[in-house]
Structure formats: C-alpha cells, structure tokens
Amino acid sequence: MMKGEGTNVMIYCYSVQSPFWTKRINEETLDVLFTQDKENTIMYKRDPDKRYVILPDSSLVIRNASVSDSGIYYCKHSPVVNLTVFPLKGGVSGVERGLMFGGVGLAGLVFLLATVAAGRVIVHRA
C-alpha cells in the first residue's frame, strides 16, 4: 500500500481476541506498537500526538502518516500490509496549507479593518 505523507491510513484486521500490532522496519527490527485487552490499550510506541488509533474491529488507523510509518504491519503475528509512505515532492501538507490560508484570511481581515478605520477618520474630519 502506498500513501502520501499527511494522509490517514487504515489497516484492516478483524480479530475477536485482543489485537496485537507490530511493525517490521527491516529484517532485524520489529517495533511493537500496542496491544489491547477488553478495557485498556497498552501503547509500546511513544505517540504524543495520538496518531495511532485502534478501532473496535481491531483495525489500525494512522493519522497524518509520515515516512517513518513505512514498514510491514502485522496483526497477531500475521503480515497484513507493506506500507510505504512517500514524501510530498515540493508539495504542501494539509497543515501547511491551513496555515497559509489562515494567514491570507488574517491579512484580508486586517486590511478590511484598516480600510474601515481610515474611512471613519476621513468621514470624521469632513
């Protein structure tokens, strides 16, 4: 599966028992992501942005995928998908796009307020 950086990825794995997700990065490295029992999810990978989510059907969602998320994902020791996340080539991520349009909107608002203020000054002096 190939996905662009910044997209959301859903990896399906139906399991009646507690899911156990791992990721193989290369031949020697196996990264344990998390396991879940009936009440708790135990994270093994630091995830301060809460990008990894396990769904009720045991599927894994990776929000805002990055190149470092690439690898072979295993659910209960069975390979499910070989994920390749490719970087945006000169493109703009969703966050960057939001910041740019937010900045343009803010500049437009400041211009409008300055125009209104200048108009009031002109009317007040007349």
From TrEMBL:
Top-level lineage group: Eukaryota
Designated name of the protein: Uncharacterized protein
Taxonomic classification: Eukaryota, Metazoa, Chordata, Craniata, Vertebrata
